[in-house]
Structures are given as C-alpha cells and as structure tokens.
Amino acid sequence: MRFLDIPEPIDEDISRFSTPESVRQRSLWFIRLRWMAVVTAFFSATIAKLVILEFDLLSIYLSIGILALVNLVYLLYYGRNLVGSIQRESFIVKIQMFTDLLLLTVMIHYSGGIENPQIFLYFFHVIIASLMFKGRQVYLIAGFAILLFTGEVILSSEALVYGRLKILENHYLFRDPAEPFVWQYVLFVLASFWFAILVVAFVASSMMERYRRVRDKLVHKQLQLIDTDKEKMQFFRFVTHELKSPIVTIQSAIDTVLSLTHDCMDERCRELLVRSRDRSQQLIDMVKDLSEITQGTMPKSMEPQKINIAEMIQMVASAELSGNPKNIDLQLDLPSGGFESETYPNLLEKVLINLVSNAIRYSHDNGQVRVSLKIHGASYIITVADQGIGIRIEDQQKIFSEFYRSPEAKQFTKIGTGLGMSIVQRFVKKLNGEITVDSEINKGSTFKVELPAHVG
Amino acid sequence: MNQHTILIIDDDIDLVEIIRVNLEAAGYKVADAQSGNGGFNLAKEINPDLIILDVMMGTIDEGFQTAYKFRQEPELKDIPIIMLTAVTQQTGYSFDPGADQSFLPVDEFIEKPINPQKLLDVVRKNLVSNA
Q1: What is the interface pTM, i.e. ipTM, of the complex?
Q2: In which element (H, E) is residue A332 found?
Q3: Residue B16, min C-alpha distance to chain A (Å)
Q4: Pairing of strands A444-452, A340-343
Q5: Which residues contact A77 (CB under 8 A, 6 or more apart)?
C-alpha cells in the first residue's frame, strides 16, 4: 500500500533523518499509520466485545476517539506550521510516540490489562521508533513502554488491594474475580515483557544502524561514481576536441596528395598513403563516436517526434547493407503497415545503425542478419540477430563499456572503435528503454532493445 | 575562359592550403583569409565568385555570423557560400540547407575531412547555378 509506505530519505539527507523536512515527512507517515490503527482498533474492539462479554467497550471507544482526536490535532498543527528546527520537529514526534504509548496502555487497561495478548503492540512502537531515532532514544521509548505497562500491572494488581493502595480498578477477561491474582503468572508475563521489549529495541536499532551505515556507504560510492563518470566525460570531450582538427587536416591532406599525384606516384608510396588514410579514418570514426558519447544532454531544442519505426528500420538496414561486400542475407520481420511511435529519431537511428552495422561487421560471408520489430503492449521490441562470431558469456556485459572489444572481435576485424555498444546503451537509456544481449560464441548474437511507444 | 576567384575563409592554414592546392589544380584563382572579418573585407575588395567558409573559427559560430553579414551586404549577398563543418558538429543539428534555408544563409555544406573530388563537384555545381 503506497499510502503506508515508509518515506524514502530526501535528497542530501541520505539516511539519517537529520533534516527537519525528513523528520516532518516521517511524522506525516506516523499520522497515516495512526489513522489505520484507529480504524483497526475500532473494528477489533467491536468484534472482541461480541466474543468476550466482560469488556468495557465504552472506555475503549473513548480511548480510540481520543487517539483520533490527537491525530487530527497533529495534522492541523502541521497544516498551520511550516517545517521548523530539527529539535522542534523531533520533539513533536516524541510527543506523538509517548501519547501513543499512553493511549495504548489505557486501552490495554480497559481490556484485561496483563491478560490482554495485545501487549505485543508495544513492540511495534519500539520498532517504529528505531526507524526514526538512533540507539539511545529507541531505548528511551522502550523504557517508557516498560514503565507504563509495569505501572498498569502494579497499580491494578490485586496484590495491592490488601495494602489499600489499589488505584486502578481491574478489568477481567478470563480470570475468576473471586480468585484473581496469581503472582507467579504476573511476574512471568512482566519479566517476559521486559526481556522481549529490550531485545526488540536492541535488534531493531542495531539493524537500522547497520542499514543506515550500508546505505550511507552506497550513496557515498554512488556519488563518487557520478563524479568519476563526469571526469571521464570531460576527459573524452577534451580528447575529442584536441584530436578533431589535426586528424581532419591530416586526412584531407592525404586525400589531396593521393588525388593530385596518383598517376605519377611510386606504387609503394601510394600504398603507404592509402593505409595511413584508412588509419586516420579509424581515428575520425573514434572522434565521432566519442563526441556522441560526450553529448551528455540532448540539445534543448530536441523534441520527441512521431515516426514510423518500421520505415526507419528498413532505411537503416538497406543503407548499412549497400556496398557491403559480404553478401549478407538480410531478413526483415516488420509489422505490415508499420508502427508509429513517439521518440527521438536521431537517437533511435544511431542505435539502429550501430546494431545493424555490428551485426554485418561480425557476420561471416554469406551470413544472415535478421531484424525484427514486435509490438508488446505499450512498448515495442527491436531484435537484431546475426549468425556471426558471437560473444563469450564473460564478455557480454563488457562490450557496453567504452573502448572494449572482445578478443574474438579484434581478431575478426580491425575495424571498430569499441565505442559503438557504449553509445547504443547510453542512447537506449535516454529513450527510457532497455537492451539485452543473448549470444553464443561461434553461433551468433541477438540484441533486443525494448522501448516505450511514447518516450516520456 | 573567365577564371573564377574563390575565397577561402578558415583559420586552419593547413586546411586552407589543402583546399587551395585542389582548387588551383582545377584552374581556379584562390584568395584566403583567416578570420570572418578579414574574409568579409577581402571579399569587398576582390568580389569573389564563391566563398568557402569554415563554421568554427574564433568562436563556435563565427562562420554563421560571417555568412549572415555577407547576406546583408548588397554587393556580396548573391555570392554562393559553401560551409565547412567539422565531423562532430553533425549530432543534434540539421545541416541540410534545404530544410533550414530560412535559418541558414549558406548554399551548401561540406563535411571535413575534405574529399577533393567532392569539393570540386560542389564548387562546380555552385558556380554553374550562380552563372
């Protein structure tokens, strides 16, 4: 139930509930829980009255009414008062906890006191306190629970009647009023209660402490990772920028020399130049890929557009196939009539280009590449499958990291920067989709991209 | 045959030289400038038949600014402009002059690195269409 879900710590407050806002947020959660408690207590008391005759229903209803009333008061208070200092917010929460325990004790008193098995409800309060506070304060709440319950037992105890000290009237559930007091029973229940509530306080607070520590560590690591990623992107951007102009100029120069002197140049020199040209082309491809990766954010002007996905697949596939010397058998399995989707076309196009060109690149001569599009509820799945060299299971996640190329891929072809799949993964994420790979070495690879029909 | 004059505006002197070698080999007369303003002033002086302009010089859009200036100058506004774009400027922007004619004041784009044959084809095409 979302209504009763424990609120997540907000923003920089990681997990300690050290900001007034997060204390307030949790306090509002208590108020919601309390409404549930009011309703549950009302119905269970009514039903219990039908089963157990000796039962002061009116007093129970009264206590429930008071609980509902104070809950309303808290709510009104929060409605009228903005978030205050951390001390004030925590103080209000503590008041709530003490009032809850007090009202619980009143209800237990009117419904059999020590005989009422509902005394385990005290434990819930201690557990809830451990979600909110740290060690010592949890024991404070537990101590208050012990004090209230033990006090109730002693003050309404038959043992004290004889000393004329009996303050509270006893309400019996099952006991025979003629022979009510069995002191062994009372001591046994009290001791068990004290022990149990202290154990609960210990277990709950130490588990929460551990959880907070682990969470802090995780959040800290995550922040570190984000920083590292930012630095990496800055580095990529720098490298791209610095590499771009010289490589472009080098390649233009080689092309010019080749174009103007190809008739009168020594064949071996020409070969050297052609090879250098190919290598500079590889560098240019890398610069292009790097610059795509470093496009951290999409241009603001970019808006999602409605496009026919099937048409785009067809276009990309035939463009990638044209001029390819491998004689690849390309199979397209697209829904007749196409499929319209709202997406960022240039990102999706890059994803498709990379997947299809990889499938062709790592296919053997005369191999088959299948591209299919299937509609799946509010999303669609594009599958690109080849029968090429495949990817070892230990490499299947690595291929999404920048610059990684599997040993088989490197051996199979020199072409490839190792950036393509990293781009694909980033762009699929930007399109709110998911990519999975299924591959077997020497059998081929299947990439599945699931994307929402409307990019949100 | 009347020899056409082509003005190259680019701050990378090596690239200017590369374009110059190709164009001169094809029989064109070439002038060059290393900044938008320098190119604009030189154009007023020599009145070229075609301008090759780099997008990114001093600033990221100096080329575009210069192109606008040419288009606003009555004597120069009809000279065809070919714009050089760098490899990485493709992403996220449309460089198709057909689609953005109202926005981009140039006639054609050539992506770097420069392919000599493509360069000559584009130059010829724009000189003919302007003849």
Answers
A1: 0.82
A2: strand A329-333
A3: 10
A4: unpaired
A5: A92
What one-letter code names the amino acid at A183? W
Query: What are the CB-based long-range contacts (under 8 Å, 24+) for B102-107?
Result: B104/B64, B104/B67, B105/B64, B105/B67, B105/B68, B105/B70, B105/B71, B105/B81, B106/B53, B106/B67, B106/B81, B106/B82, B107/B80, B107/B81, B107/B82
**Nearest of A415, A416, A437 to residue A425 by alpha carbon:** A437
Separation between Cα atoms, residue A327 and residue A67, nearest integer Å: 79
pLDDT computed for residue A44 by the predictor: 87
Yes or no, beta carbons of B18 and A256 under 8 Å apart: yes
Residue in A247, A256, A288 closest to B116 by CB: A256
Residues of chain A found within 8 Å of residue B115, distances taken between Cβ atoms: 255
Q: What is the structure's pLDDT at A174?
A: 61
Tokens of A389: 């060299």
The answer to whether A391 and A399 have CB atoms below 8 angstroms apart is: yes
So what's the pLDDT on residue A250? 92
Q: What's the whole-model pTM score? A: 0.56
- The amino acid at residue A205 is S
Taking alpha carbons only, the member of A417, A423, A422, A418 closest to residue A282 is A417
Residues in chain A where the model's pLDDT stays below 50: 11-14, 160-166
pLDDT tens digit string along B24-50?
Answer: 999 999 999 999 999 999 999 999 999
Identify the CA nearest to A285 among candidates A255, A324, A243, A249. Answer: A243
How far is residue A61's CA from residue A56's CA, in Å, rounded to a whole number?
Answer: 9
Task: Please say if the pLDDT value at position B71 is more than 60.
Answer: yes
User: What pLDDT score was predicted for residue B18?
Assistant: 94
> Residue A145 region, left (φ>0) first, then alpha (ψ -120 to 50), else beta?
alpha
Q: Is A380 helix (H, G, I), strand (E, B) or coil?
A: strand
Q: Where are the alpha helices (DSSP H) in A81-182?
A: 86-110, 121-132, 135-155
| Angle formed at CA A277 by CA A407 and CA B10, multiple of 5 degrees | 125
Min Cα distance B17 → chain A (Å) is 9
DSSP symbols for A151-166: HHHHHT-GGGTTTT--
Structure confidence at residue A330 (pLDDT): 92
Q: Which of A132, A121, A142 is nearest to A93 (CA)?
A: A132
The reported pLDDT for the residue numbered B97 is: 47
Paired with A373 in beta bridges are A382
Please tell me the total number of residues recorded for chain B in this structure.
131
Give the strand pairing for B5-9 and B29-33: parallel
Q: Find chain A residues with C-beta within 8 A of B92's C-beta.
A: 295, 298-299, 302, 346
**pLDDT at position B10, please?**
92
